[in-house]
Design goal:
Helix 5 packs across helix 8. Helices cover 24% and strands 29% of the residues. The mean pLDDT is 95. By secondary structure, the protein is α+β, with helices and mostly antiparallel strands. Strands 1-10-9-4-3-2-5 form a 7-stranded antiparallel beta sheet, with no helix packed on it. The protein has a 7-stranded antiparallel beta sheet with strand order 11-17-16-15-14-13-12, with helices on both faces. It has a 3-stranded antiparallel beta sheet with strand order 6-7-8, with no helix packed on it. Bound molecules: FE2/S2 (inorganic) cluster and fe (ii) ion.
Length: 374
């Protein structure tokens, strides 16, 4: 059922203790998604990978986000650069695959124009015989890339503000929660085209109200009764006291003060540091449309050959923990477009900011409202 679009009123979102979600249409309407492409995704630093994926010279990754195919490549000069994965000639895609090692030139598969890893055109067949051919106007189109907190962030704006201004204080907290972030390597990736809006997925991550009933084995290890969720500038941090469990996180009993840390990072990345502190899982969201989000669920360990315990853990993420959340967000997305949904939901914040309080959701929605109104 099409309803007229509800206008946002900033005043309605200032009080975290009397908060409602933003209107359901903001999760389902394609015109809202189109405006988010510009207001949010083309103007924010977005995390796309761990630094280890582009550590070597000539290594590259490609990512597809808001309909743009992007390349991040490390040049022979060791500099990391970002280019649209689009040939300046007639627009063919240049590199394929999620990641790989580029030759010293990138050659377009269509008419074989060749580009250095700094984007400069080095060869275009027959260009000497073409009148007014402008080599400079035929280089690759770049965007900003930066390594931050051990990860790769991209920004499609021509004049981005510094990443430190978007994510004030984040880097130190990430290094504190996982001291080995920079040494981690990708061990497993689960890819899903999730039939849910990117914000539905963030909403689900940013509260543990759903944990006791939906993540039974997680809740056996991480105590939701002893759980803190702190709100920061464009990010939040959930910290839970943990104990070893046979059904989820096994770790050495000798670890002092074991915790689970979960970061939500604007706009749509989540870092998880499970108890033990020597590995991570990351949820990357790459929005495709109002109702569809490509997700990478990446697991990083220090070692490349996985132990039996690590293999078991990867299976637990794949078969148990991950599907638990996917089912939730899919169902919510469907409900948000129902004529039987009142159009907004009460955000269940409590004054004590307990482990099951939804103040994280209210914080996220305040930021969303600000971005939509700007
Ligand atoms: S489209 Fe790439 S060389 Fe023609
Ligand atoms: Fe969950």
């Amino acid at each position: 059922m099409m309803r007229p679009l509800t206008k946002l009123n900033k005043e309605e979102y200032t009080d975290i203790d009397n908060a409602w979600t933003i209107p359901a249409q903001y999760y389902t309407d394609e015109s809202i998604f189109e405006s988010e492409k510009e207001k949010i995704f083309a103007n924010s630093w977005v995390c796309v990978a761990h630094s280890s994926e582009v550590k070597e010279k000539n290594s590259y990754i490609t990512r597809e986000i808001i309909g743009e195919n992007l390349i991040v490549v490390r040049g022979r000069d060791n500099i990391l650069r970002g280019f649209y994965n689009v040939c300046p000639h007639r627009g063919h895609q240049l590199l394929s695959g999620d990641s790989g090692k580029a030759k010293n030139v990138i050659t377009c598969p269509y008419h074989s124009w060749a580009f250095k890893l700094d984007g400069e055109l080095v060869h275009a067949n027959n260009c000497d015989n073409v009148e007014n051919f402008d080599k400079d106007l035929s280089s690759l189109v770049s965007f900003h890339v930066q390594e931050f907190a051990g990860f790769i962030f991209i920004n499609l704006s021509e004049t981005p503000k510094p990443i430190e201004d978007q994510l004030v204080g984040l880097e130190d907290k990430v290094f504190e929660a996982c001291t080995v972030v920079k040494d981690l390597k990708l061990a497993a990736r689960f890819v899903s085209e999730t039939p849910a809006n990117w914000k539905t997925i963030v909403d689900n991550y940013i509260e543990c109200y759903h944990c006791p009933t939906n993540h039974v084995s997680f809740a056996e290890s991480v105590d939701v009764g002893d759980y803190e969720h702190s709100l920061h500038h464009n990010w939040t941090l959930q910290v839970g006291k943990a104990k070893p469990s046979e059904s989820s996180y096994k770790f050495d009993e000798s670890i002092v003060d074991p915790r689970f840390s979960g970061f939500w990072i604007w706009p749509c990345t989540m870092f998880n540091m499970p108890p033990g502190g020597d590995y991570m899982t990351v949820i990357y969201e790459f929005p495709m449309s109002a109702g569809k989000t490509l997700q990478y669920y990446d697991i990083y360990f220090l070692n490349e050959e996985l132990t039996e315990d690590q293999k078991r853990l990867v299976e637990w993420y794949k078969d148990v923990f991950r599907p638990e959340d996917l089912r939730l967000v899919e169902s919510v997305q469907k409900g948000l477009s129902s004529r039987g949904y009142r159009g907004r939901g009460r955000i269940m914040t409590d004054k004590q900011r307990s482990g099951i309080s939804e103040h994280g959701v209210a914080h996220f929605h305040q930021i969303l409202v600000q971005q939509h109104l700007d």
